[in-house]
Every structure is written in C-alpha cells, then in structure tokens.
Amino acid sequence: MIYIESLELHVSNHCNLSCRGCSHLTPLESPCFIDLNTTLASLKILKEYVHCKVIRLLGGEPTLNPNLYKIVDEIKKIGIADEISIPTNGILLHKISDDILKNVNMIEISNYNYSSVKTNEIINWSKTIKKKYKHLKIIIYMYQYFREPYSYIKNTDTIQVQKIYKSCIVAQKWQCFNVYEDYIFKCPEAMALSKNIENESFSKNGVKIINSKKFEDELKKYLFNEKSLSACQYCLGTTGKLFPIEQTTKEKYKKYANLPMKDLIDNQFLEECLKNDIGDLKTVREVIEI
To answer: Using one digit for the tens of pLDDT, what is the confidence trace for 31-46?
Structure first.
C-alpha cells in the first residue's frame, strides 16, 4: 500500500473567476464537469494500492458542480482518504448544502483580495457553519499575490527545469497528486499542461490507472521519482515572479504565458527554496482559522 498526503479531483474544470495566476489553466477551460463514472471507477481501483490523508474536491470552482453532494457521498463510500476537503473561492458558499457540510472535514476558502463587505460575508458564513458543524475545519486564506505559473515557450535549459521541479512546493512538499479521468498525475499542473500544450499528453506526464501488480510498481516509481516530467519544460513550479492579484481574459492569460521563462521566473526565490527548503509561496498575507 502506498500512503500519500493528498489526492485532488477537478470536479469542475471551469471557474466563476479568471485569475491571471491560475496554475490549473482554468481561464482556458470551457464549462465542463468531472466524468463521475470514470473517476469513481479509477478511485475504486486506486484504493487497492493507495491511501491518502485527504482528498480535495476542487477545480476550477467546485461549487459550480450541481452534483457535488453525490460526489462527496460516493467518495466517502469508497474510503480512499481519511478526510474530504473542498477548496473554494468562497463566492458561492451558499451552494454548499448541509448534506455536503456534514460529510466533509474541511472547507478551504481562498479570498482573492475581495472587498471588506465580501470578506465579512465569508467570515460570518464560516462562523455560523462552524457553530452548527463543530467537526468542520474552516480555513480562510487571504491572498495578496499570485506567482507566474507557466510559459508556453518550451524551456530547453534542462538544468533549470530540474531545479524548478526539485524546488516545487506543490509536487515535493504538499503532494498534490491529481486524478483526472483514468490517469493519476504528480500534480494538477502536469494534468493541465497535458490538456493545453501541443505535443504533451496524459501518457507522457501521468500513469494510467489499471488494476494490476505492474501498476503498483509503476505508480511508486512515478510518484517518488526525482526526475522532472515532460510538462515541467513549460512550468514555473512555485518559483514564478510575484504579481498583484488580477482578473483577466483568456486572450490576456495566453499573452502573459507567451513570454520566455527567463522573464517569468523568480531566480532568487528558486535558489532560496533549493537552499532552505521553503514551504511558503509568499502569496498569502494572512490565514484565518475558524
């Protein structure tokens, strides 16, 4: 059995925001929800080989999915994780029903520099829900910055690619392993880039989920391999330059990513991460736990 920190499912590919720094390439996605039957079949197979501390139902924006309760219910039955968490931007908190709240363990709210009115609304909702569901952990991340996520221009500097991969907090510290349809990926970025970058593919960057002893060996080798993925040639990991939170269009999102890696990377932060094993992206100014 392989024990890992977390698994992530994109229950909604699209979002009700369009953040310039979205590392899941959500601004490029058309409205689309998870293929539940395929995903549940994959999780049932995966359960025979993997157990995780927490499974996160995210996106895009998970509260856009009208079947979120059913997804929570089915995943709880499978029992692949100790806990279930829903990361959300907090705009549609009213869509998180009581049936969901009593069956999940955590709500993680990302406040992307909202107005004081919206922020107070989120905090008040959280306090009310916490009184009703005492088992529930609610965390509000007050974001101030994003980091540049990608370049569409392939990075041919193999040494730098490996450095970015080695310093990537998402892959190396947080273990944000990602299940999409019938593949498992080391990170959501590997999945997103496989969908959106020409000549990338699921098979080049992930492992197909099949029920066999060979799969278990292949999965162990893949998840804990110290070598970068093919998609890493386009990814800044967690070392892109900081910039203030900004909403953008699909066209502008592409425009920013059409710059070469040297214009997008924060080399000083990269070296700090390699030297000091930093686990903070410096994008959040405050964390509020209810």
So the answer is: 999 999 999 999 999 9
Instruction: Please write the tens of the pLDDT for every residue from 156-192.
Output: 999 999 999 999 999 888 999 999 999 999 999 999 9
CB atoms within 10 A of CB 98: 11
Largest Cα–Cα distance in the chain? 54
CB contact set of 160 (below 8 Å; sequence gap of 6+): 261, 265
Q: What are phi and psi of 280, to 5 degrees?
A: -125, 125
Question: What's the N-to-C CA distance of the chain in angstroms?
Answer: 34
Exposed, middle or buried, 146 (CB in 10 Å: 0-12/13-18/19+)? buried
The pair phi, psi for residue 139, each rounded to 5°, is: -125, 130
This prediction's pTM:
0.95
- Give how far Cα 98 sits from Cα of 72, 92, 136, 223, Å: 12, 14, 12, 35
Q: Is 217 exposed, middle or buried (CB count within 10 Å of its CB: 0-12, 13-18, 19+)? A: exposed
Structure confidence by residue, pLDDT tens digits, 130-161: 999 999 999 999 999 999 999 999 999 999 99
Any idea which residue has 């979120």 for tokens?
68
Token representation of residue 6 = 């977390």
What whole-number distance in Å separates Cα of residue 272 and Cα of residue 43?
37
Question: What burial class does residue 289 get, using C-beta atoms within 10 Å of its C-beta: 0-12 exposed, 13-18 middle, 19+ buried?
Answer: exposed
Q: What is the pLDDT of residue 53?
A: 97
- Lookup: tokens for 154: 């392939």
Non-local (6+) Cβ contacts of 185 within 8 A are 177, 178, 179, 191, 194, 202, 205, 206
Q: Give, as one character, the DSSP assignment of residue 2.
A: E
